[in-house]
Every structure is written in C-alpha cells, then in structure tokens.
Amino acid sequence: MKHFNDEAGVTAVKSPYTLDASHSWLAVILLAAMFAMSYIDRLIMAVLANPVAQSLHLSDTQIGLLSGSSFAVLYSLACLPAAQFIDTNNRKQIVLIGVTLWSAMTIASCFAVDLASLMVARSGVALGEAVLVPGAVSMIGDLFVKERRTLPTAVFSSMAPAMGTGSFMIGGAVLGVAGLIAPHGWEPWRLTFIIVGVPGLLLALAFLLLVKEPVHVRQNVELADDVSFLGFFKYLRQHYWFYFPLMLSHAALSFFAFALLSWAPTLLIRAHGFQPAAASFIFGLVIMPSSLAAIYFWPWLAARVERKHLHRGVPTGLFAAALLALPSFVLAPLMTNKYLFIGGLCFAHMAMAASGVLPNLGFQIFSPGRMRGRASALFSLIGNLVGYGLGPVLTVYFGHLWKGPATLAGWDIAANPLARGLAIDGMIAAPIMVVCTAICLRTARRLPVVEPAGILELSPFVQANSE
C-alpha cells in the first residue's frame, strides 16, 4: 500500500482494491437509473387506479390498500434485515436480487384477477425495492471520499423528487401507448405493467456485467467497531435527540407525500375532468420544474451551510422545506381552479423533494460508514410504513369524516372527499415537520465526527487526481 496526502491535506491509504473514477460514476448512473425505475414501478398503481378499480371492481379503500399497505408492510419487514446484510456483505449481489425481483413482480401484476392476486404482486415489488436505497447509499459512500460525495449522492437521491412526479408523466404516456397497441382482448392497464417492468431487468443485467463491488471504507473505529444490530441501535440511542426528530419529521412528510402522489391524478380526473392518461401525464409534466429546482437548490443550500457550520447543512435545508410546507400542504389540495391546484402542488412538491434529496447526503456526512445502509434503510422504512401504510387509506377516511364546513361553501372542490382528506393530511404533517426539523437544527452540532483525518480510505476521485 502507498501512503500520501490528498488535496485536502488528509492522509490517505491507497488500496489495491480501489476502483477508477469512471467506474465509480458508471455505478452511480446505473444505481440512479434503477432508483428511477423503482419509482415508476412503485407509483404506477396510482396512474392505473381508475382503470384497475373499474376492471377488478375495487373500492377507493381497496385501491388505497394496494397503493399503500400491501407495499408498506412487506417493505418494512424486509428493509432492516436487508440493510444488515448490505452493511456487512456483498452489496452488488443483494441489489441485483432486489431489482430482478421487483421488476418481475411488476410484470406479474398484469395477470391479477382480483384484489388478493394484485396485492401479492405489489408486495413482491416492495420486497425487491427494500434493498436498493440502503445498498446504493452504502456503495456510493465507499466509492467517493467525504469531500466528493455531495454530487454523486445528490445525483442518486435526486431521482426521488424527479421521479415522484416524472413517474406520472411516464406512466400516463405508457398507458396511452398501451391503449393503442394492446392486443385484442387485452386491457391497456395490463400491458402497462409489462412495459414498465421490463427496463428494470435490462438495468439489472447491465449492473451485473459492468459494476464491481467496492471495498468497505475504514472509518472511525470507535464509532464503526460494532456492526451488529445491537451496535446500530445503541448508536441511535446515544444520539436520539437528533435521530428521533429526524425520523419523525420524515414520517410526517411521507404521510402527506405518499397520499398526494397516490391520489392527485385521481383528483384531477374526478374534480377537474381530465382523462386518466392525460391526468397523470400533465401532473408529471407541470410538477417537473419544481423537481428540477429541488434537485439543485436543496443540496446547494445544505453544502453552503455545511462549509460554515459542521452537520448543520442538511437540517437547515429540511427546516426551510418544512416552513414551505406549512401553507402549501393545506391549501393546494383545496384549490378550485385546476391551474391553481397544480400550481399549489408545485410548491408542495418543492417542500416534499427536500426529504428525497437531503437525508441520504446527511447520512454520508454524520453516520458511520458501516451503519449508513441501516440508517438509510430505517429512514426509508419509517417513511414507507407511515406514508404508504397510512397516507392513502387515511386520506379517504378523513375526506368522508370532514363533510365540508360552511366556511368553504364557495370552494366547490371541497365537496370532493379526496381534496378534503389531503388538506387534513397537510394540517397534521406540516406542523410536525417544522417542530422536528427545528430540533434537529439545534442539536446537530453535538453529533460526532465520523471521518477524522488520517483514516480515510482513498476514493477513486482522489486517486485519479493524485497520480
């Protein structure tokens, strides 16, 4: 092994197992592409909610269960055990199994004949997707040194806000094409499941052939020494004053976000008169600018603050997003005019996108390397369990619980139960987000430094710049 200083003055160790920079970025691009496909396969149920409900004679509550609970329960059961393997074993193999499984089960959804068979298929999608985010966060952390992880982590994480709306645009377009090319006797929604499932299998093949497993980075031994579940939860308990409000804030945001993503296209159809394919396409197309703005703005803000205040960048961004959520989460769903409705959702999505971009960047900064996968997995688990498991279903319940007070008599859209339900979701989620992110911002400075000088494993970026 060869010792020398990188450009930041940190003593590093050049490992014979490190990979070159081009390979590292190839891995990031393929991981990001798979993350994008996971969102399409995950949210396609919202795009197909109306035709599937009509074809299989399902109620709104049953569609909410398909969009939420059938995904959330199995995802939650698989998430942490998968992350434990990811933090201690070959991450490439685990990611490959997950991508192949969820893509195959998306294709299998086209053969559903009732609620039970479709729920089994959607649960398989959840089981496969549970491994991707913790696996990718762990791999990227070992492909780049701390100072150079912001861009690749942001590229990967940006798929969440981008595809949170882009999935509807793509899904709507695919549904429209499927309606034109579906064989005689085939319903377009069935062919749509096949079309969106196949690309994941192709990406898995490319990942198998082109990406190598990186070596786990050596970090602060005092923090990363115990890689067991007991050690992981001991670390979280020691710093509960930061991690607990961070997780609670994400749960609150996910509660609203997944409800919105599940029901917004349906609300456009029922309250604003759009056709199913057009509703999903237009929703994605119009919201996309806020996704692109979020991808660049939130990491820029976090990096700018982080340079001056250690560990404060990510909490600052999340706190700013929570302030934006306060008015937009409550008012946007109740807008009478379709243009005001979609415009309001742009601001709401800008706030939602912060939680898709920033936390994974934060785990790269303040979580020990051998715990990043599980930290990211726990974050995703809580978000999906609360968001998917409760958001879509409780939106229907809240909407019927609140019959539309007289003060909103002039707002005809308030007569729609989904609009009322989404507004109540926002009233619950936004205040929790503001309080919790404020606590995170106040307590972040007490987090330990996980990558002190002298123990960084050299990344391909530094290697390439130093030779």
Structure description:
The structure is a single chain. This protein has 467 residues and is mostly helical. The chain has a single domain, classed as MFS general substrate transporter like domains (Growth Hormone, Chain: A, Up-down Bundle), CATH 1.20.1250. It is built from 19 helices and three strands. The protein has helices at 21-47, 49-56, 60-67, 69-88, 91-108, 115-129, 132-143, 150-157, 159-181, 188-210, 221-224, 229-238, 240-272, 276-308, 313-331, 338-366, 372-401, 417-443, 460-466, and strands at residues 2-5, 11-14, 456-457. A hairpin with a 5-residue loop joins β1 and β2. The longest helix has 33 residues, at 240-272. It is globular and about 55 Å long. The two termini are 14 Å apart. Mean pLDDT is 80; it is low at 1-18, 220-225, 404-409 and 452-467.
Give the end-to-end Cα distance, rounded to a whole number of Å. 14 Å
Total count of strands: 3
CATH topology, what is it called? Answer: Growth Hormone, Chain: A
The secondary structure category is mainly alpha
User: What count of structural domains?
Assistant: 1
The main sheet comes to:
3 strands, mixed
Order of helices and strands: EEHHHHHHHHHHHHHHHHHHEH
Number of helices: 19
Indicate the mean pLDDT.
Answer: 80
Q: Work out the radius of gyration.
A: 22 Å
Q: How helical, in percent, are the residues?
A: over 70%
**Anisotropy-based shape:** globular
CATH class: Mainly Alpha
Give the secondary structure arrangement, pairings included.
Layout: E1 2-5, E2 11-14, H1 21-47, H2 49-56, H3 60-67, H4 69-88, H5 91-108, H6 115-129, H7 132-143, H8 150-157, H9 159-181, H10 188-210, H11 221-224, H12 229-238, H13 240-272, H14 276-308, H15 313-331, H16 338-366, H17 372-401, H18 417-443, E3 456-457, H19 460-466
Parallel strand pairs: 2-3
Antiparallel strand pairs: 1-2
Helix pairs in contact: 1-7, 1-8, 1-9, 1-10, 1-13, 3-6, 3-17, 4-6, 4-17, 5-6, 5-7, 5-10, 7-17, 8-14, 8-16, 9-10, 9-14, 9-16, 13-14, 13-16, 13-17, 13-18, 14-15, 14-16, 15-16, 15-18, 16-17, 17-18
